[in-house]
């Protein structure tokens, strides 16, 4: 039941990406190109998603707990550290080189070799970063 | 050039929001695609893995829904050559993992909860993305 619903939500999420244009790198790159062939459409994607999510989250949290889980799993970190800012800066550069963010990429994975290649590189990047973060934790633990 | 599609993009955004709210209301989970991908990359195939795999499966299958509804597969156009896709994808994986979130996790879920971290993250990656495209298209390219 739970995976079936998750599949359905993924299907809806993917349709939203495809309808909005977030899955099309040419459109995403034109959104960033404010000095050239600027296409402001993606600001409207954010607007629509934020409107529904901001209201919907409030209603969901009012239920006290999710329908099929014991509690809401929410991030607890508060600090604006170098990992957050540096990581986001690097992500922006990567996104601008490909036109694919992770959410825009997954729904179009089956549509060609370019998204597949980018997807493999993203997974490699995730694993590399996890490994580097683990190493730095171990180093801190050894020094302490 | 790509066509300016404010209504379609707004509608698509609302659909993304619906799925995001549903995942929270039912599973209690953040719809951050980078986090879901990262959680999918594990050797422990438990319940947490199962919902992530199912959600990703649904996303991958979504073009078929549009095929049924509209009679054609969605079309995408990828301007970047293969080496840039590999470098950019790798940087995307590294950056979103260090930042604990991407456009969906920080940009949609986080900002909706008015998280300061997510607002800072989104402003940061939007800024470096715009700067990078300015450099590749107007300074070094073109």
Order of helices and strands of chain A: HHHHHH
Low-confidence stretches of chain B: none
Oligomeric state of this protein? heterodimer
Q: Residue ranges of chain A: pLDDT <50 for 5 or more in a row?
A: none
Helix amount of chain B: over 70%
* Overall spatial form of chain A: globular
Q: How many β-strand stretches of chain A? A: 0
Structural class by SSE content of chain B: mainly alpha
Distance between the termini of chain A: 46 Å
User: What count of domains describes the coordinates of chain A?
Assistant: 1
Distance between the termini of chain B: 14 Å
Mean pLDDT of chain B, as a whole number? 95
Class by SSE composition of chain A: mainly alpha
What is the H/E string of chain B?
HHHHHH
Transmembrane segments (chain A): 41-61, 82-100, 106-129
Pfam families (chain A): DUF6691
Keywords (chain A): Membrane, Transmembrane, Transmembrane helix
Organism (chain A): Roseibium marinum
TL;DR?
Chain B: It is a multi-pass membrane protein. The complex is a heterodimer of chains A (144) and B (142). Chain A contains six helices and no strands.
